């Protein structure tokens, strides 16, 4: 297998790659994502395009410092009623986030790109519609107390692979993409490029 790098500090994304047996290095991008997003806020950039732009920027930055490696860049955007929501800053913000999404559908757009020697060779975005059930404030409080502040790493303030599954009526897409990495399309591309055996 060729030199493979995950340009993300996400433990969840790293675990997905580890679970399927990939050997890789994990190197976080040092880019300021909010600075990259600022001009996007001033234009009508679609959420899925925003996710792809951020994933690509991070991967290119890491690739330029690791020539020869195949670099995986990822990003996930939560879109709700024509606005992009970011990770909650604290547990009170997480509580407000869950109550905002209660009984409604939002979308997660999970982007993944593959970059080699500073050049993007492949891009993919998976849209995931997420229909949350109606939640009472009391239930949200008990749920957040149970799961703890680890959910602050999630843009939606939930982890569907764990107790966050209780929050939903329906989910679309696949669990890998909901976690933040469209794994099956990525594996197919890595095989096509000869990066992994296939």
In short, what is this structure?
37% of the residues lie in helices and 25% in strands. It has helices at residues 11-19, 33-41, 47-64, 91-101, 137-147, 175-179, 183-192, and strands spanning 4-6, 25-26, 70-80, 83-85, 105-116, 119-132, 168-171. Helix 4 (91-101) crosses helix 5.
Given this structure, which CATH class is correct? Alpha Beta
Structural class: alpha/beta
What fold name stands as the CATH topology?
A: Maf protein
* Poorly predicted runs: none
Oligomer: single chain
Distance between the termini: 11 Å
Number of domains: 1
Question: What shape does the CA trace take?
Answer: globular
What Rg, in angstroms, do the CA atoms define? 17 Å
Helix content: 25-40%
How many beta-strand runs? 7
Query: Helical region count?
Result: 7
Q: What is the makeup of the main sheet?
A: 7 strands, mixed
Query: Which CATH-level-2 architecture?
Result: Alpha-Beta Complex
SSE order, as H and E? EHEHHEEHEEHEHH
Mean pLDDT: 95
Strand content: 15-25%
Keywords:
alpha/beta; about 200 residues; 7-stranded mixed β-sheet; Maf protein
Structure commentary:
The chain is α/β, with parallel strands linked by helices and 198 residues long. It has one domain: Maf protein (Alpha-Beta Complex). It contains seven helices and seven strands. Strands 1, 2, 3, 4, 5, 6 and 7 form a seven-stranded mixed sheet that branches.
């Amino acid at each position: 297998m060729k030199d493979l790098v995950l340009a993300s500090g996400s433990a969840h994304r790293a675990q997905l790659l580890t679970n399927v047996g990939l050997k890789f290095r994990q190197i976080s991008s040092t880019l300021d994502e909010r600075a990259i997003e600022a001009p996007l806020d001033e234009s009508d950039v679609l959420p899925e395009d925003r996710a792809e732009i951020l994933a690509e920027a991070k991967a290119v930055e890491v690739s330029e410092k690791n020539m020869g490696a195949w670099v995986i860049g990822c990003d996930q955007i939560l879109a709700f009623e024509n606005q992009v929501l970011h990770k909650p800053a604290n547990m009170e913000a997480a509580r407000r986030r869950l109550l905002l999404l209660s009984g409604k559908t939002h979308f997660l757009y999970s982007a993944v790109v593959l970059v080699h020697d500073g050049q993007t060779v492949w891009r993919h975005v998976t849209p995931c519609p997420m229909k949350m059930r109606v939640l009472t404030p009391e239930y949200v409080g008990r749920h957040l107390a149970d799961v703890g502040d680890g959910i602050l790493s999630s843009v939606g303030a939930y982890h569907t692979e764990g107790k966050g599954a209780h929050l939903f009526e329906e989910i679309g897409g696949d669990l890998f993409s909901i976690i933040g990495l469209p794994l099956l399309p990525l594996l197919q591309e890595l095989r096509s490029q000869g990066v992994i055996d296939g």
